[in-house]
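Why show two proteins at once? Because comparison is the fastest way to build intuition. When a single record is shown, students tend to memorize it. When two are placed side by side, the eye starts asking what differs. So, the first record is below.
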Amino acid sequence: MTALPDDVPDTLRWRLEDIDLQAVDREAVAPRDDIFLLVCSASFIESGTDLYTRNLLEYFAGDPEFESWLRDRWEPEELQHGRALRAYVQTVWPEFDWEAAFADFFAEYSALCTLDELEPSRGRELVARCIVEMGTTTYYQALNAICDEPVLRDLSWRIRTDEVQHYKHFYHRFLSYRRSEGLGRSQVIAALWRRVAELRRSDADVALRHASAWRWRDSAETPALADVRQRLFDRMRTEYPIELAVRMIIKPLQLGPRLQRWAERPLSALARRVLLN
């Protein structure tokens, strides 16, 4: 097994040492391009968390409690996700040059991940963070459902559990800024809408493009990115936890328990029609 660096805090809920990489069933998963692309692209994004953390620390300067959580909890856990996913890729696909592919990804990603991309106020940025954590939570839950390799199922569920906790922390911090900034529901809806509209763009698209390019780097026939993206979408949407996604999306609207339950059903039905038809 691969050990973690010495500077990883002891407060993590799990450690890479807990993932039994020696037990990976390589024969079962190695031929699956869909699993490779989903795991590899996720490993790129998670491994770039330190850049995003620097942006958030600068943006939330003067909020020591939140700065401490970002630096001491969120960043170490996200970077651990990247290390664990990278280790899985290198265990199953040792011929893949992860370092070179990540370097290409990061060169492009770092130009996109800037302070200018954040929302115009702290409260609205925390709404956006809730949507990002919703996206990662549901991503890893869907990945867990479509894979049948036991070690990856264990790993993806551990990461999914971390992402749920991150969502909860961003959400509770949002409540504080919502009061102090006097954010109305229309402003929250606007922030939600902007971030939901971006979920299938930007960093995820960049990561997938570089994972795909390096996967078929020496192949005579490289599949078109649009075809790769559509195949992955078709594969994931059958197991996508729609009800959970809707519940997490609308929670920042503070509708109240009864109204939230009333809103979840039609929104989930609409989302299911969009995804499955």
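Second record. Ask yourself what differs from the first in the token line.
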Amino acid sequence: MAIERLRVLRELADRGTVAAVAAALSMTPSAVSQQLKVLAREAGVALLEPDGRRVRLTDAGRALVVRADEVLAAMDKAAAEMASYRGSPRGEVRVALFPSGAALLLPRVLAELAGSGVEMVARDEDVPAVEVPRLLADYDVVLTHRDERAASIGGPRVASRVLMREPIDVVVGPNHRLAGHGAVVPAELADETWLSVRGGFPVDDVLRSIATVTGVQPRIAQRLNDFTVIEALVASGYGIALMPRHAVRHPDVVMLRLAGVRAARLYDLATRPHAEKRPAVATVLAAFQAAARRATGPDDQQR
């Protein structure tokens, strides 16, 4: 089986449509379809089946995608090993980060990489953790976040490593009735107006946990994914919010520890399996680990 045809199959698994694969690989849709037909003949089994006006992978196709990941990872490793004979790790590593994680870690990561010969190209991608496999079609490393009680996103086609834990606190305005408290329990928050994020993100998961404990459905006035906007509204008295501890910047909000509920998010670094065998990717992963150690304190690791 030709490696390039295996790459086309993997792209179809990642992107979902022949048209999307054609756009990603600078091919025509008919050329993509032809490559997939040839690969099916080489495999001796059907790899695709009709799905309405589109196609989807058969069980055999999905199994072959997993092997394609392994073959392509081995090719990347071989290229990286040859590069290592030419000196220190070099090359470009594409990284996707969620915005608040980028604000905390990206300056530190870039400082770690200075002089390494590795060029990190960063882009912000604000999606729930379940969408990370889709991002790995375009990125070598994805920094994502999830509620600490949520399952890992790791699987046959995704390698996931926990990078750090960040507590999630309650933030209130300076004149709020709870502003003088160091900590609060869910029962004290049952009648509050909330400013939250869109569903599927860790902060919303914690808010739903508060609702479960209190038996009161939270009254959410606004859903915004920009923590800078959320804390500005909190400071102005338009509601209270849950925010990751290191995302709080506004001088006029008051942070309160949330007691009685597990309230934290985990940062995960996701790659394709075996991607760390590329020296450049391994260097970036190590830079993230060093940055996380410097960014967190002992309280962050308490569970």
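One difference worth noting in the second protein: The chain has a mean pLDDT of 91.
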